[in-house]
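[PROTEIN RECORD]
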Amino acid sequence: MPNELLKNKKGIIFGALDENSIAWKTAEKVHEQGGSFVLTNAPVAVRMGSIDLLAKKTNSIIVPADATSNSDLDNLIDETMKHFNGKIDFVLHSIGMSINVRKGKHYTDLNHDWLTKGWNISAASFHRLMQCLYNKDAMNEWGSIVALSYMAAQRVFPDYNDMADNKAYLESVARSFGYFFGKEKKVRVNTISQSPTPTTAGKGVKGFDGFIDYAEKMSPLGNATAAECANYTVSLFSDLTKKVTLQNLFHDGGFSNMGVSQEIIDSITKK
């Protein structure tokens, strides 16, 4: 039920491609809670996706931006502040891409040009984004910046490939830049380590069905859905979490603290 947790709050949401994406669900939840935002994605994603429908539904504008381009990010932030006539309160970074995963390259045989491109889009873009926000003093005090991660940043998931390295870098950037954003501007920076989620990007990972089934069996509460992740993100955008920063927050039904579950033991011993 809407209770206006984000009333009068304004922000930017990156990465809403279609209704399966976490960013899309987050935009819907933010809108329900009284927040306003600018939607953005890479120009090609804007053309290929259905973001226009989301913009109409949430009374939002779309400003395309390549997250690896300083000039695009500068324009995005300038247009957002112009649209809202002032600073903003929240940002969601929901961006990830690996050409090596897409092309089926094994981790021991990566194409390093592809690796660099994927790292730039998936991880370095977070630093680039925060640097632009920081230099423009675009965030209100007690604002909140959130990026989406995955547990492969800490543990081995062979088919997650170089995306695991990207997520580890992403989480490090959140802590390092989050220190300066917190100390100097009273802005929170966190990452959410989400359960494997059947988004368009997630389903592109080899063996994804195995990932999600295994996590479901391991997690005491089961996998967290995209809509549940959206609710969690709303809580981090709200004033209820004003002193939460520099954290990688596991939103995975308890998976991250499990060694093994009885369901996994049973499935192994039955073979």
